[in-house]
Design brief:
heterodimer; A: 205 residues; mainly alpha; 9 helices; globular; B: 319 residues; alpha/beta; 2-enoyl-CoA Hydratase, Chain A, domain 1; 2 domains; eight-stranded mixed β-sheet; three-stranded antiparallel β-sheet; 11 helices; flat
Amino acid sequence: MMRQSLATVRSLKWVDYVYFALLEPRRLVTRISDEASKPYWGALLVVFFASFAEILAASLVTVNTHFFYHKITYGLLLVFLINLMKIAVVALLIDALCQCMGFDGMVKTIFAVAGYAFFPQMFVLPLVYIVKVFSFAPVFFLSVFSIVLGIWSAIIVIVGVSEIHSMQFSKAALVFLFPYAAVGLYAFLVVVLVVMNLLGYVAAI
Amino acid sequence: MDKNRKILVAIMAMLGLSAILAVFEISMTIQASRPGVYRLSSPVIGDGIGVVRINGPITMTGTADGFMTLGASAETILRRLDELSKDSRIKAVIVRINSPGGTVAATQEIFQKLMAMRRKNIKIIASLGDIAASGGYYIAAACEYIIANPGTVTGSIGVIAVSPNLQGLFEKLGIKMNVIKSGAYKDILASYRNLTEEERALIQAMIDSSYNQFLRDVSLGRNIPIDEIRPLADGRVMSGTQAVEAKLVSETGGFEAALEKARKLAGLSDDCPVFDEETNPFERFFSGIAGALFRGNHLEERLAGHSNGISMIEYRYRP
């Protein structure tokens, strides 16, 4: 078992997932779909390391206290779990919408693709490091890099969804935006209703 | 595909390396800024003492802003002093000097800034390290109180201009320079020919002028008549103990003594915060490498200075 795992690592075939995620998301979908057991471990690892890079990049540009050591232990687990929850919710909502539109349910594949799509976000660390070393507006560039890499990740998921269901890129983009719009609208309504109830409660006292 | 795989593994290794470096740097920064390094006790709010460090040869832009820090840049030091003078919490400033001096204008700018801070009623105390000679002492003279270690090399009040004369070497190698100049003195101190008597007189006049400014400023800063300083101002170096006897230094002691004096002069409590400079661990690392590579290479340094056309008239101790 151990020997087999080592052989797998040495073969560097696992690198293909990262390569496909970065440059050829359509082949990533094909590879994941072909695998009998979906490569969730790789996807989870990518999300974990992306969360680590995210925390380190943010820590690099801020003033640090000993709280940093809590951030890279408990904080890392927290960010990892939040990112995991985000992927799960996004994958579930995308799949639910796709099924409503008449497509087959492919939630496992979408989940794996969304996990690998986190890989570009790891680049935020070296990029922020460079601007930090040269003291070139690191906080501003942290935001810029996060947005740009976030868009890259989104494009990977959109291309993935487009490939999974053989739909147009624009249609896949709308499907991808659906979970964010739905959760955003839901959160907005909840906040408004909570505020209205609180105001009513305060007025009644 | 194999090639792509290897490239990706290299990229992932780079990501891993940057993560390790980031953790290392952040940890170093936390360790360096932890309370208790210079703070005797914890409060970080309230009035306190600022620390400015002047290390190495002083030049106007220097190399201090670069990746490999070799000397003190006056502009960086002035920015730090400006920060401190604008901070209402700073009631006293310790200028920690470890410098053999530097260029005339850079030294004078720092002197003027410190005098201006003194006029704003900020207590300025100099703490001399291994060496605070010539321009290093010039800056210390701006401080209200000077504390030197008994073995600090200080003094060296004077001005120096050094220019290599490579005429013989040029002749031996058969190198001739084509010089087209607008005036007789345009290539004064050129290394490819001897200095003429007239040129020597011109440079000497400049040196004398800078020397008189040095005497005047030391007299002003230390509140000692120029006539008392002049006998000591022949370029001689002295130990901290000798400097106390000559009234060039107020007392002997180390950095802790300077802290204590600053607290006392500014009426601050024993547990007041001390705002020391924070340096980037990368800067420290690379300055360490630079120091190891270039330390003591005076000839190369001087020749490089000349080839770049940098003025060699300095308040500097050159053993």
